[in-house]
Design brief:
Distance between the termini: 37 Å
Strand content: over 45%
Number of strands: 11
Structural class: mainly beta
Order of helices and strands: EEEEEEEEEEE
Shape: globular
Length: 122
């Protein structure tokens, strides 16, 4: 599976962005998908995850109520709608695929996209 994330950019605090992650391969619909982010000088951290059927969704506490993860298996794409953005959301955002299930654990993910940068100005 190859993943390509896009949709990042510069936005003012309080604004919105929608990230997309396009996947190649016919097995996308079986994979759990996650979004992670890495701010400068910090470790990569979990943001949100969704299982194959969209029946199980997880969010980090820091984004709960502001971010929404979703997927369209027909389009092999997973989305991250980000609202009420804060300067603390500034990071490179990565999408990832989990062959086995869905998890908040970064080490459970098998495939990674290249990342898209999100900058939130105050």
């Amino acid at each position: 599976v190859q993943l390509q994330a896009f949709g990042g950019g510069l936005v003012q605090a309080g604004g919105s962005l929608r990230l997309s992650c396009a996947a190649s391969g016919r097995t996308f619909s079986r994979y759990g998908m996650g979004w992670f982010r890495q701010a400068p000088g910090k470790e990569r951290e979990f943001v949100a995850a969704i299982n194959w059927s969209s029946g199980i969704i997880y969010y980090a506490d820091s984004v709960k109520g502001r971010f929404t993860i979703s997927r369209d298996n027909a389009k092999n794409t997973v989305y991250l709608q980000m609202n009420s953005l804060k300067p603390g959301d500034t990071a490179v955002y990565y999408c990832a695929a989990d062959r086995d299930y869905v998890s908040k654990n970064i080490h459970e993910y098998d495939y990674w996209g290249q990342g898209t940068k999100v900058t939130v100005s105050s």
